[in-house]
Amino acid sequence: MKFGPLPTAQAEGAVLAHSVALEGRARLRKGRVLGQDDIAALHQAGVAEITVAVLEPGDVDENTAARALAEALVPDGQAQHLHLTQAFTGRVNLLARGPGVVVPEVAALEAVNRVHPMITLATVPPFQQMQDGGMVATIKIISYAVPEAALQDACASARAGLRLAPPEIASVGLIITETAAGAGDKGLEAIAGRVAAFGLDLEQVVRVPHETAALTGALRRMTTGLTLILTGSATSDPDDVGPRALREAGGRVERFGMPVDPGNLLFTGTLGQRPVIGLPGCARSPALNGADWVMARVICGIPVRDADIAAMGVGGLLKEIPTRPQPRAGRNTG
């Protein structure tokens, strides 16, 4: 592609690089392929030279290129739960079909962005929770055209490298343990809202005393695909009431504690084949916390192992922490 000033008389078929206002008629917008009428209007307005992009053999225009890359990335929108918008000014957006969690093939997408600086792909972070219609990614061809060979390489790298994992858990239950001075139902609405974001309801809400035996019995009686536990007193040790009750119910504690703040006091496990999440106290607030990351993946059928939670620490500081003053700040140290 050639870019630069060109005599107006030679610009038919070229792409207008900068919008031009013409008296008495609609503005010629950048990106327009100039036709005979446009050239005549420019001459009439006294415009002798304009800046254009001229495609050369082997070039692919921006909209065709953007659409081709989008279709390589999402060859099956139904199966990948993604919708492609129409290409416009070299851009195609990829939107979520329903709620879910974004699962990118990071190496493949990074390879796309290494092919040619004019071919770009931006996505939300891995495992980002999405709602229906949310923008998962955007493809933008920066220039008015790109070499066909580069586009082919980018399409080969894309190889269906992005999908939305939809909810796989069909039902969610919540057990709340209560203490004399506990929070009671505080936080129930926030937790129900988190579940509703996936099109689900809290099918069972059970309240029991904050005692190991009572919680053990409640866990054994739960029949939902996912069980959440919200204890009236913070779970501060792997042998505290929540984790101990899960083990005594015949389940397994897979992880206690997570390097995400807020959210440190979360624990995860299984009871039979069903996942169990012990929620930290911060889950009573609708504000983002580490439990949101874990719940979203579990509801969408994505395994959350010990190593996965350990890896959440990088980027896991989710609240502002005031800068501590230096102990000697402002003092005359002589």
Can you walk through the features of this model?
The protein is 27% helix and 26% strand. With 334 residues, the protein is an alpha+beta fold. The protein folds into 2 domains: 59-165, Pyrimidine nucleoside phosphorylase-like, C-terminal domain (Aldehyde Oxidoreductase, domain 3, Alpha-Beta Complex); 172-311, MoaB/Mog-like domain (Molybdenum Cofactor Biosythetic Enzyme, Chain A), CATH 3.40.980.10. The strands form 5 sheets. A 6-stranded mixed β-sheet has the order 14-13-15-18-17-16, with helices on both faces. It has a 4-stranded antiparallel β-sheet with strand order 5-6-10-8. A 3-stranded antiparallel β-sheet has the order 1-3-2, with no helix packed on it. A hairpin with a 6-residue loop joins strand 5 and strand 6 (91-96). Helix 4 (106-115) runs antiparallel to helix 5. The longest helix has 12 residues, at 62-73.
Write the topology of this structure.
Blueprint: E1 2-7, E2 15-16, H1 36-44, E3 49-54, E4 59-61, H2 62-73, H3 77-80, E5 82-84, E6 91-96, E7 100-104, H4 106-115, E8 119-123, E9 129-130, E10 135-141, E11 145-147, H5 148-158, E12 162-165, E13 172-178, H6 188-196, E14 202-209, H7 212-221, E15 226-230, H8 241-248, E16 252-256, E17 267-271, E18 274-279, H9 290-299, H10 306-311
Parallel strand pairs: 13-14, 13-15, 15-18
Antiparallel strand pairs: 1-3, 2-3, 4-11, 5-6, 6-10, 7-9, 7-12, 8-10, 16-17, 17-18
Helix pairs in contact: 2-5, 4-5, 7-8
Question: What is the rounded Rg?
Answer: 28 Å
Q: Proportion of β residues? A: 25-35%
**Can you count the beta strands?**
18
Uncertain residue ranges:
324-334
Average pLDDT value? 94
Residue share in helix: 25-40%
N to C succession of SSEs:
EEHEEHHEEEHEEEEHEEHEHEHEEEHH
Number of domains: 2
Structural class: alpha+beta
| Widest beta sheet: strand line-up | 14-13-15-18-17-16
Question: What's the CATH first level of the largest domain?
Answer: Alpha Beta
Number of helices: 10
Could you say what the CATH architecture of the largest domain is? Answer: 3-Layer(aba) Sandwich
Using the coordinates shown, work out and report the CATH topology of the largest domain. Answer: Molybdenum Cofactor Biosythetic Enzyme, Chain A
Mass-distribution shape: elongated
- Spatial separation of the terminal alpha carbons: 67 Å
Q: What composes the largest sheet?
A: 6 strands, mixed
Write out the CATH superfamily name of the largest domain: MoaB/Mog-like domain
